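<derive_structure_tokens>
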Amino acid sequence: MKKILLAFSVLLFFASCMDNDGDVQENGQFPLGNWTISESHENGFSLTRTESLPENNSGFSFRNNGKMTSRAMAGWCGTPPVAYADYAGNWSNTNGALRLNMGFWGGRNIQEWKVISSNDTGDIVRVELVSSEIIQD
């Protein structure tokens, strides 16, 4: 019993020393976690929380250190079959607006989002796209 307790204590010690500032918190507040675009609207879209980003769909993964990943089309052609790729970026929340600076196949996309509504559980969020600026490389 003492050996099990000692082993557990050592394991707990090492686990507490690990740096997890960049981890995605699945059950955290929006926008933390993984989100897939589930529906398009006139001025924005709806996001649905997912366990991971799907292979063949657009989505976003927000980490609590301000880093993010955008999964988007890998090229300019949208004719099926469409290939997707992951692009690094960062995000911030200022005065209730999300500001995203993320890569895409042709450069950078800087967007500002405003949350319009969410369901009771917070796993579906409707977002208005306030502004979008494309910077081509």
DSSP finds one helix and eight strands in the chain. Residues 21-136 form one domain. The longest helix spans residues 2-17. The chain has one domain: 21-136.
